[in-house]
Amino acid sequence: MATNPQAMQNTPDVLNLIAGEWRKSGCADWIDVTDPATQDVIARAPNTTPDEMEQAISSAAEAFKTWKEVPVSERARMMFRYQALLKEHHDELGEILARETGKTFADAKGDVWRGIEVAEQACHAPALMLADSAENIAGGIDTRTITHPIGVCAGITPFNFPAMIPLWFFPLAIVTGNTFVLKPSEQDPMTPNRLAELFLEAGFPPDVLQVVHGGREQVDTLLTHPTIRAVSFVGSVPVAQHVYRTSTDHLKRCQAFAGAKNHMVILPDADKQQTINNLVGSAVGAAGQRCMANSVAVLVGETREWLPEIKAAMETVRPGRWDDEGAGYGAVINAGAAQRIRDLIGQGEKEGAKLELDGRECTVEGYPDGNWVGPTLFSGVKPGMTVYDEEIFGPVLCTVEAGSLDEAIAMINANPYGNGTSIFTASGAAARKYTHEIEVGQVGVNVPIPVPVPFFSFTGAKGSFYGDLHAYGKQSIRFFTETKTVISRWFDSGIPAGGPNLTINMK
Fold this sequence. Notes:
Keywords: NAD, Oxidoreductase. The chain is built from 17 helices and 22 strands. It is α/β, with parallel strands linked by helices. Mean pLDDT is 95; it is low at 1-8.
């Protein structure tokens, strides 16, 4: 949405970070950044000009020439300083994030913390970049591998996690010796900018990270520019497909994380109260605006009788503004997203699903213009219904019924998405069967949102991910580096004579 002239006079401009300087864009077209709880315009983001995009990419390319030669141990020391600064400013970052996303303060701080965990993992770069070697594999020949950076990388990140997702990408890319161009969501750009300010404060060279703002035009520049070697993306399925196809057509590496339709399977032997609490939290937390939300509950056997208790638990949750400590979640990101959710709820009714709890008319006292959607519950949902097939990305829980665990597994494996799933049960045998047979990338056993810590990788699958190597963990190191193999032989006749060197090189 373009900014009107009156709003332009009263709102701060979001700056680009180009060549180590915070610059106001010379663009003529700006984008409103609004408070989801009030619709107030709190800033305006630029549609960065083509010339400014070129300057950012060129600066990153020039910086790569020297940054790649900095010892990995020194790069790691800078990252240690950065993660310490992120922790020091944790609550400040959380408040910035909450104000522009609509998340509750507690949820916003969680967003920041999960990003800090990846920055901490980046501090281990010297160990993560260790390669292999073998001595005397044949006739005095030694073989070793060398891990080295690939060049300028780009990240295109979504609105729903404006701290965590950028921190999935640029710390690991940069600590492994690459330079990076970040294009965050235009809907909440202030959090990524603050991350970049702290990055510079940590002592990194001023041009190894560039931050540019805008929409599709700026994204397409990154996807097609010959200097960009790799692209990391998180977003909706149609955009992820566009990003993957375009970047790979232009011979780039790409990891594109897309949408999801996550299922929680509930067996009759599960702890009822614990299961219901976890189900409701995972379905409506963050207003359902996360790709790991459990938006489908698969009630196996007699657990279909739990529906009244699930409804009662959902009725206790209410949305509110970011600083409302009693709110379970915040506003949806924008009015268009809220209307789309309401439309899908109506479509579910038309297609025959039973609307047990309707959140379309939700209001929050004092904030009549907020993008509010209350907890919503459907029963009698079946594959083929729009509310089952599409990712709603709102606080909407669909319940389906299955006669057995085998039936539940078959239903989920038939779904095109494969981001995350959970099973709640007291049976180790059932859990093992489920984790072995389910065709989903991340599986929780009595864990509602199975997002791995950064020692492992985020392993979405099927239609939820396009690419080969996933975010963070060991796979991310491989994504941002190349491996060179060196095969060498040295002859004894070449050994020089001379005395010992008694000086230890400390650098």
